[in-house]
Design goal:
Blueprint (H helix, E strand, L loop, with lengths): L5 H14 L1 H31 L9 H30 L6 H26 L6 H24 L2 H38 L11 H22 L3 H50 L12 H4 L2 H5 L10 H8 L3 H12 L3 H19 L5 H8 L4 H12 L3 H10 L1
Length: 399
């Protein structure tokens, strides 16, 4: 069969085989023996994910879906590496580039889908069943077509289909990135509407993992375009580093997911309530009381916002309303999230304290405001004012 991407391969082959033969042989050996190392690591990661147990987490269907999808991905990819290693040992004289290209695209496409599904499941059921069916059917169709083209099609058809399959895989990466970015922002907004602290930091690893996986996916795309040992070794190394990082963070996340999940699931309801309030269709809670009436001056006068670790549930219970409507009210009436609103109130209190007692230390000020330490206070000052704590303090004292 004619090789896919013939001109690109010809240029690379001339450079690869005639300019650096020793380097080529070294890379072939590195790539070949990196395969079983990666396979063993992936089997280990898959087994760890399969048998990961936490009584609280196992109550969550979302976490179970993510766990099983990632375990299957790790084990499947490990088996693929074992198969490729055995094939390279069996026959090192000939290389079927088209088979390597199709195999790489099939595996990369399936991995991209499974990993994106896992990430969205950790953001709480963001992938609908209809989406899953469509993605599964599309990937299956391309896989079957790739097999049929490889076995029966003419060389020109193989080349055209390779370009089409590559374009499809590239569109997958773009679509999944857009979907993930949208749902991740929604999840952060949900946490900001519930907690007063930076609980969203606990989810930052999910974004890091997704874009790391995207980098691995782009490396796989390069491997499909130029299936040579140098790129294969780089892809193996990137996969090993990525799966190791992800497994460790995934295990750690299991201990906090149960508390975060209820907030993520409530975000969709909050969004709907917020839209209703903006349209004027909902101004009251379940008891028929206006939400803004419930936010009495008593809560502000008692400075309840200075409580460490305060959540929107605490405020809702104090004023006797529903936290979903309270969250939507803050979003629409105050034009901000619960976390930012609480921090605005705290920094206004900090300004009053500094004027009354300019000699107060940063540690004392942070403790009084309900922050865990002064570094948290400094971060909030910088976020809201855009200046350093010293400059911010001088402006207050000189005003």
């Amino acid at each position: 069969m004619t090789l896919a991407y013939p001109k690109l391969r010809l240029i690379f082959r001339i450079f690869y085989y005639f300019c650096i033969p020793d380097f080529r042989n070294m890379n072939e050996q590195l790539y070949t023996y990196s395969l079983p190392v990666l396979a063993v690591a992936l089997f280990a990661f898959g087994l760890i994910q399969s048998f990961l147990q936490s009584p609280e987490v196992f109550k969550s269907a979302s976490f179970r879906k993510a766990k099983l999808a990632m375990a299957f991905t790790s084990l499947f990819f490990g088996a693929v590496n074992v198969f490729e290693f055995l094939e390279r040992l069996r026959s090192t004289e000939t290389e079927d580039s088209l088979l390597i290209t199709f195999g790489t695209l099939i595996i990369a496409s399936l991995q991209a889908f499974l990993f994106t599904f896992s990430m969205l499941a950790l953001l709480s059921n963001s992938f609908q069943k209809r989406q899953i069916r469509i993605e599964t059917a599309t990937i299956t169709l391309f896989t079957v077509c790739a097999i049929m083209v490889y076995l029966f099609a003419e060389s020109i058809v193989s080349i055209v289909f390779t370009y089409v399959y590559t374009a499809f895989y590239f569109s997958q990466l773009i679509r999944y990135t857009l979907i993930f970015t949208k749902r991740y922002k929604r999840a952060l907004n949900g946490l900001d509407n519930y907690y007063s602290g930076r609980e969203a930091d606990r989810m930052r690893w999910i974004r890091v993992s997704f874009f790391s996986a995207l980098g691995v996916g782009i490396t796989a795309l390069a491997l499909a375009l130029l299936p040579y040992p140098l790129f294969g070794f780089c892809c193996s190394f990137a996969c090993l580093a990525f799966y190791g990082y992800f497994t460790i963070r995934f295990i750690n996340y299991a201990f906090v997911f149960h508390d975060i999940e209820k907030v993520l699931e409530a975000e969709n309801e909050n969004s709907a309530v917020g839209a209703e309030m903006e349209n004027g269709t909902h101004k009251t809670d379940g008891a028929g009381h206006k939400v803004n009436v419930r936010l009495t001056e008593k809560w502000l006068d008692e400075k309840q916002f200075l409580q460490p670790g305060i959540t929107i549930d605490d405020v809702a219970k104090f004023v006797g309303t529903n936290c979903r409507y309270l969250s939507a009210y803050i979003n629409t009436d105050k034009g901000t999230t619960f976390r930012r609103w609480i921090n605005e109130l705290r920094l206004k209190e900090a300004q009053n304290l500094l004027r009354q007692n300019p000699s107060i230390t940063w540690n004392e000020l942070a403790e009084h405001l309900g922050y865990a330490d002064k570094s948290t206070l400094f971060r909030q000052i910088h976020t809201q004012s855009g200046s350093s704590p010293r400059v911010w303090k001088d402006k207050i004292l000189n005003s």
